[in-house]
Amino acid sequence: MFSKSLSLKPRTVAPRLAALAAAGLFAFTASTSFAQTQQETVIPNRITQAINPDVRVTLQHNVHPLAQARFDQGAAPGSMSTGRIMLVLKRSDAQETALKQFLSDVQTPSSPNYRKWLTPAQFGKQYGISDTDLSAVTAWLQSQGFTVDKVPQARNVVIFSGNVAQIQQAFHTSIHRYNVNGESHFANASDPQIPAALAPVVGGIASLNDFHPKSNAARKSTAHFDPETKSIKPDLTLSDTSGNHYLYVGPADAATIYDTPSSALNGNYSSSLLGGKTYDGTGVTIGIVGDSNINASDVAAYRAGFLPSTYTNQPNVIIDGNDPGINGDATEALLDLEVSGGIAPGANINFYTAADTDLQVGLFLSIYRALDDNAVSILNVSFGNCEASQGASGNLQILNAWEQAAAQGISVTVSTGDSGSAGCDDPNTETVATMGLAISGLASTPYNIAVGGTDYNALATSFSTYVSTTNSASTFYRTALKYIPENPWNDSPLTNSGSYTTNMPFKDSQ
User: What pTM was estimated for this model as a whole?
Assistant: First the structure.
């Protein structure tokens, strides 16, 4: 079934293609990293007084909205491991102003810094905390019994680990267990505190709960692949007896719909254009982040079924820390790896993944690993979480990451989710906000490309104009004939709209 071995994506490849194109599908060499020419700044120390554990400041707005007394099941065991969590560092006002100016200059053709991207180490030297302040922060963590696991080169977080008792002692908060809608969660019951001396450089802790971001993919019906004949059944593109129309979009369909310069996949590509060249992502590395491992054979099967045999490159799986194994988010990982590799089949793809912990999502460990490696031109994130649920520390963690990516020349694409302004409601059931207008914190910074999904709305009345009812292996099962008019969506994968159903194998806003 395609639901496992060949994950297919109807209608919604369009925004993912648009995101990758916007990030440089047709100018993949533009993200080459260059050495920064401006004079390196001497970072002043901002920790100017002794660390007094009795003089503290509160890191406000860092209790999860669902960590409520009515769900409280009591204190978590003090011996419970935190796993790796992040102390989020912050820049001085002067550094933040300078960084924003650099991020403007690096995109301005007339600037001497145009496209002179920074390395992570250069970013840290310009916009991180000083050596002295970093030593003070790590020494304080170690004095509280924590292990400092890693300080990324950008110096915007410190990754550390310990147990719940140490968290409660160091940050003067308590970790409780909560039962929310039948699910067990851990979260801090009050805003954490830090010694006041650290406040100039510490922005928060991300995170002290396990209300993790969720994949934006929703699985519905399936298509089928015959393993004996290694062929795709003709129900890839079909209309059912009720008059509902379905288009299962493969790489050749996406190439044709969006007229990409691919002679093998785009049925309308003219060899007279662009000198007959094919632009397929060769020479570029795309980054995908997740918190599950994958079966590499699934990606291989997808590429064998939908791409020319010359494209044999497989994703590079990079595990940061503990292997998460294959879990419920493997579907999202496969979807991202297969579709990005289908749109840019010549590109290298790095898949960064890490295991969740009780107080940290593996997704952010993967993101910061990808940024520290600095080996990708595009970084795709298909997860979302209500901005209010991220808390002040979580939103700073995201902002730090995407600003760093922009400075390094990495284009970040983030799916917006299907719930629109109902971002703090249940995204699988709600299309109207009942808990206040909200958005996904991962997609809401000025430094990422936020991408929503679309419906091919013209198929309900003009199916044969845009889609053929036949396909074959020689055309890589292409059924799309040309560009199909589309509209943004804000609907549930379980609802119908007129005669055009939204039922589909996968629904993902990117």
Answer: 0.84
